[in-house]
Amino acid sequence: MSTPTPSLADLPFEAAAFAARAHRHAVRKDNQTPYVSHVFRVCLVVRHTFGFDDPRMLAAALLHDTIEDTTTDADDLVERFGPDVARWVAALTKDMRLPHDAREDAYTKVLAAAEWQVKALKLADLYDNLGDCRSFSPNGRRKTAAKAHAYLGAIRQNLPDAVRPALALVEQRLASLEVGLTS
């Protein structure tokens, strides 16, 4: 028996519960912080830092790592959260079956061609990851910065004006991180 898709207003609440269950055993790179805190922060960035309030975007922010990092698949998300959320989350998912370099190349190509909502969601993910990496070693911070540069190069392609303020905030955060690496 399939679960009915929640109302648009309830979508983020259902997605928060789903993400919490899906990531329940995972932790961040510090091996202490529950992983789900990342997806919650990404959702907060989308809404409160970038100013996007579409419930589908908020749900996709909460679910953005479920296909890549859990046993969830795109069909689960279509059934539970609708085709837009599932499509956006799928676009934010790296194909872990590919070798690292091929995977990153394929991912940046998807980001370059993605809908603006996907680009805004990835910017929120980058914003949080850039803030969260302050406790990393200098080499870890450099790796995070290099990855951010690659993704930003893809995101900038055909970026609509509505997303440019979010891009500027991520670029500022990246520049701040890089200043800390040179001082």
Automatic annotation (TrEMBL):
It holds the Pfam family HD_4. InterPro entries: HD/PDEase_dom, MESH1. It comes from the Bacteria. This is HD domain-containing protein. The lineage of its organism: Bacteria, Pseudomonadati, Planctomycetota, Planctomycetia, Gemmatales.
